[in-house]
Amino acid sequence: MLVLSSPSGAGKTTLTRTLLEQENIDYPGKLALSVSATTRAKRPSEIEGIHYFFKTKRQFEVMRDSGELLEWAEVHGNFYGTPREPVEKALAEGRDVLFDIDWQGTRQLLDKMRDDVVTVFVLPPSAQELKSRLVRRAEDSDAVIAQRLRNAAEEFQHWNEYDYILVNRDLDKSFARLRAILIAERLKRVKMPNLNVFVDKLLTELKGLTP
Ligand SMILES: Nc1ncnc2c1ncn2[C@@H]1O[C@H](COP(=O)(O)OP(=O)(O)OP(=O)(O)O)[C@@H](O)[C@H]1O
Ligand SMILES: Nc1nc2c(ncn2[C@@H]2O[C@H](COP(=O)(O)O)[C@@H](O)[C@H]2O)c(=O)[nH]1
């Protein structure tokens, strides 16, 4: 489970979507994106089921109270949560799962499955650039942008709870670094449960080669 968090506008959605696209070319089906449920209004560019599952507050509360969410949080005045079933299914199939969630949700995943979670915090190169990105994205009203910038101060403070930090200055470099994190994490011995079978096979082959 690879989790990206950041203050709004630092670039985690761009990075997660780019990683998903590239991985689907290189290793089809290996990486799944967790699509969250939210009570936030849909942005003009967003598509139901691709970017989010858009819910009313009542629908969200039913999902939350019936245990359908792996984690959930209130962020910028809206509810967001991770549907449990698709994540559990993907993990059971041996797929890696990518999350774009905030620090509160990250804490909940860590409490439940510490050993299976790798966390990345994305920082903007400057506060001015953070604001410029939110403005350039042109998806939120001025009031929403102002609220997200106010909330950024609180979110910044959680950077030191994460395994990796990406200062997202140059997008290509950040993406290369994110891929490097994924590649290195996949190469960890503890993440290779069938390695003993492979090594046993090597030993058998070796016996056949030695007198
Ligand atoms: N390295 C970068 N350089 C310049 N612009 C960038 C960079 N990374 C992302 N952006 C742009 O900044 C804007 C915000 O990025 P994005 O939507 O990915 O942020 P986010 O962290 O997911 O925000 P939110 O939490 O609000 O969803 C987008 O318009 C994106 O194209
Ligand atoms: N705890 C969770 N946080 C989530 C989830 N899905 C998204 N988020 C975070 O909310 C903010 C705002 O997102 P936006 O799409 O409205 O810009 C951002 O920090 C996301 O990472 C979730 O399922 N759980």
TrEMBL record:
The keyword Isomerase does not apply. It holds the Pfam family Guanylate_kin. Its main location: cytoplasm. It is found in: Cytoplasm. InterPro entries: GK/Ca_channel_bsu, Guanylate_kin-like_dom, Guanylate_kinase, Guanylate_kinase_CS, P-loop_NTPase. GO terms for molecular function: ATP binding; GMP kinase activity. Its EC number is 2.7.4.8. ATP binds at S6, P7, S8, G9, A10, G11, K12, T13. One of its GO terms (cellular component) is cytosol. Belongs to the guanylate kinase family. This is Guanylate kinase. The gene is gmk.
